[in-house]
Amino acid sequence: MNNIDKVIRFIKEIENLKSVTRTAWTKTGRRESTAEHSWRLAMLLMVLREDFKDLDIDKAIKMSLVHDLGELYDGDISAKLQNDNDNKA
User: Fold this and answer.
1) Which of the two residues, 89 and 49, has the higher pLDDT score?
2) Spatial distance between the Cα atoms of 53 and 48, rounded to a whole number of angstroms
3) How far from 41 is each of 3, 35, 51, 78, CA to CA, in Å?
4) What is the pLDDT of residue 6?
5) Where are the alpha helices (DSSP H) in 15-78?
6) What is d(CA 24, CA 35) in angstroms, rounded to the nearest whole number?
7) What is the pLDDT of residue 62?
8) Would you say residue 3 has pLDDT above 60?
9) Residue 26: which residues within 8 A CB-CB, separation 6 or more?
10) How far apart are CA 41 and CA 36, in angstroms?
11) What dihedral do alpha carbons 25, 18, 57, 82 form, nearest 10°?
12) Which residue in 3, 10, 11, 62 is deepest, having the highest Cβ count within 10 Å?
């Protein structure tokens, strides 16, 4: 499998994040998807670039886009339901 095929396969896989709902709601009362959550966080970082010149914004944007990829397989687990003693390796 060449690189472009791997990229297309990855993009198709993460498209499913649009269907993963979180334990958070939009201002209209609809449950937010993981994709919406990650997109909004990345946008926030992008528009704050000038306010945080000492921060590596590009790295932070990348982190915001990948930080919830695991929800694709395990769903969103509310912080209220997580045990403080969980091993988050």
Assistant:
1) 49
2) 9
3) 28, 10, 15, 18
4) 97
5) 34-47, 57-66, 71-74
6) 12
7) 96
8) yes
9) 32, 36
10) 9
11) 60
12) 62
